Amino acid sequence: IADYIDGKWTNLExxxxxxxxxxxxxxxxxxxQSVFEGMKASVTxxxxxxxxxxxxxxxxxxxxxxxxxxxxxxxxxxVEAVTKLVGIEKNWIPPYDGSALYIRPFMFATDEFLGVRxxxxxxxxxxxxxVGPYYTKPVSLKAETEFVRAAIGGVGEAKxxxxxxxxxxxxxxxxxxxxxxxxxxxxxxxxxIQEVGTMNIxxxxxxxxxxxxxxxxxxxxxxxxxxxTIFKDAGYKVEERLIGIDEVFAAHADGKLQExxxxxxxxVVSKVERIHHDGKEIKLDVSDYxxxxxxxxxxxxLRNGTVEDKFGWVIPV
Length: 317
Ligand code: PMP
Hints:
Blueprint: E1 2-5, E2 8-10, H1 27-31, E3 34-36, E4 39-43, E5 49-52, H2 54-67, H3 75-88, E6 100-109, E7 122-131, E8 139-143, H4 161-176, E9 181-185, E10 193-196, E11 200-205, E12 208-212, H5 222-233, E13 238-241, H6 245-253, E14 257-264, E15 268-277, E16 280-283, H7 290-304, E17 314-316
Parallel strand pairs: 8-9, 8-15, 12-13
Antiparallel strand pairs: 1-2, 1-7, 3-6, 4-5, 4-6, 5-17, 6-7, 9-10, 11-12, 11-14, 14-15, 15-16
Bound molecules: 4'-deoxy-4'-aminopyridoxal-5'-phosphate.
4'-deoxy-4'-aminopyridoxal-5'-phosphate is lined by residues 38, 195, 198-200, 219, 221-224, 264-265.
GO biological process, one term: branched-chain amino acid biosynthetic process
Cofactor: pyridoxal 5'-phosphate
EC number: 2.6.1.42
């Protein structure tokens, strides 16, 4: 936990989790200056806890913070704090079974003021939570044609609390209609695919791996970035470009849509078995998802030390 006061970070401490005391006019509660990260520490086969690309999370929270008019938290301090916290987390003796320690760094405004302006004081907190193995079942997606998550020029690229609040209502409706998650489309034409719930998305069309380009309206996932590198390294053609929902349905009709899967820290890979758009639906056979399996096996292998870390992504604690 740390406080930002008078233009600098101070009161750095590690302490047991406890309640916070906030004034009712806390700026974050009213105007949403709040950003966060989600990362996981896993354990290798030899029992060594490891972080995965922690500097990327440090950079991303600062990018989110800058968009929300919040100060940067020094990147080296971020990595040091996460490393220390994981190291002293005595309750966490995870077996080598896919269990992990979820790590939630977050920053929020602490000024007590009711007018709309950036706060001058902030808190930065990192908390951890042991999580069991994440068994993913194939998911169904509803391409959303009424609500939008993010527009170009908005805050979609920031991991800002408000983005998640905006998604709650459409996600609830989609779940009531029998879908697991929403596939977000662009805010202008409801045509181009952005991302899925808390994941980025990949398509395999006629042997080519396609993922939506980041144009300021989607979160630049660290899993997404890692997969692009892994796929290119394995010799696949990867395209980051605009991809329309119509293109996906047309590829399916032509028998060229081979795989659709989500990518994110929590599930690593979520295979997609059904996509609904505007009254039409496609079904996919997930039993032969070679690329999704390669992505999952490589990333989990890197994390548990059974795949050589040639990219230097895995940092022992
Ligand atoms: N998009 C959104 C909206 C998310 O919340 C997440 C999870 N952080 C992702 C994509 C995937 O990002 P990452 O791979 O960094 O977990």
